[in-house]
Structures are given as structure tokens and as C-alpha cells.
Amino acid sequence: MLLATIVLLGAIPQSGELARSVANVATEASAVAGKDAGASKSLPSMPTPKVKTDAEADGVNSSVAPNLAGAGTVQAPHVALSMQPVKQAYTRPRETRGQRIAWYTLAVTGHGAAAFDAYSTRLALSGGYGTEGNPFLRPFANSNALYAVTQVSPAVMDFLGKRMMVSDHRWVRRLWWLPQAAGSGFSIGAGVHNMGLVK
Questions:
Q1: d(CA 8, CA 12)
Q2: How far is the C-alpha of 62 from the C-alpha of 118, rounded, in Å?
Q3: Is 31 a member of any domain?
Q4: For the residues of 38-59, what is the DSSP string, one character each?
Q5: 57 part of a folded domain
Q6: Which site in 4, 19, 62, 163 is 20 to 30 Å from 116, CA atoms measured?
Q7: Domain residues for 175?
Q8: pLDDT-based confidence at residue 142 (cuts at 50, 70, 90)
């Protein structure tokens, strides 16, 4: 079926004899045309339109119509276009070197403060001075898993601060440091409170 489709659509000659006969038809047609050229009058190169042109339909004088027909060949003058400055592609705001250093500093401070909070909580709970107030951390309060679980909050704050640093909104970019600083402050405050209970 595929072969039949290719043969029908591709018009491939079936034999060399057929290909030769097709080539001969073209040469014979040109020879016959050369013989009949003198005997017959010349044919028009393009048939005449059967509809009226716009000039004839509007009632324009016949002396004007040839001028209008020739007007189609006139080309419009080339006008140099003024050079416009290329609009710069939009790019997201990027962090500066100073912001990167401050972000790493706040990240280390936040994770250190969370570790201090976990240490002081474990110390206070092992001495029987209180209970864990955070219901999410309460299942981990009596095991060393508390050190790992308390690192989740500073990691989220680091991510949030990094996203705020490259935000499209200017006021958000100005406050990028706030989540990390607040998380560190809460952890340090909780750790100091716990150490006060132990003493």
C-alpha cells in the first residue's frame, strides 16, 4: 500500500522507455511551436479581465485609465527609518556581594542560635525544670533528634530571605534580612530563658 501511494503521488516513471518518451514530447512540442509561429498570429500573453477595473467602474476618463494602469509599476521611495534604542531585556534583581556575605552571616547565626535553643531545652528538660512549650517539638524533646528538628526553622528562614533578596518588589528587597534576624532572635531568647530556668 505504501509503495502504491509513493508511485501515485511521486509520478515516478515505470521504465526508461517512458522517461525517454516524456523527454521527447517536450522537444517535439517546441519544434511544432517554431513551425506554427509564422503561420498563426501571436496569442496574448495574458487573458483580458472580464470584470471592470476600478477606474472604469468609477467612470474615470479612458485617457486617464492607461496612466492609472501604469501607476502600479511605480515604487514607493525608500525612507530610512530612524534608529530607535533597543529596550533592555528585563532581568531579575541580583544579590550584591555585601548582601551575600550578610546572608551567610545571618544563616550561620540562625543555625547556631537554633542549636543553642535545642541544647538549653534538653538541659532544662533533663533537670526537670519545665516542659517543651512548642507542640511540634514536644515529640522530639526527650531525644537528640531535637537538634536536627530545630534546624528546620532556620533553613526555611534562609530560603525565605534569599527569595526576598531577589524579589521584584523594592520594599520586599529592603526587608530581606528580617526573617533570618527574627528567627535568630527568637531562638536566642528561648535559649536564654531556658538557661535562666536551669540556674
A1: 8
A2: 102
A3: no
A4: HHSPPPPSSPPPSSPPHHHHTT
A5: no
A6: 163
A7: 100-198
A8: confident
| Residue 186: closest CA among 164, 148, 146, 157 | 157
What lies within 8 Å, CB to CB, of 12 at 6+ separation is 6
Say which residues have a Cβ less than 8 Å from residue 75's Cβ, sequence separation at least 6.
none
Amino acid, single-letter form, for residue 181: A
- Please name which of 113, 101, 108 lies closest in space to residue 183, comparing C-alpha atoms: 113
Q: What is the pLDDT of residue 131?
A: 85
Residue 27 domain-assigned (yes or no): no
* Amino acid of residue 4: A
Name the nearest CA neighbour of 104 among 48, 42, 17, 162: 162
157 lies in some domain = yes
Give the Cα separation of 199 and 188 in Å (integer). 17
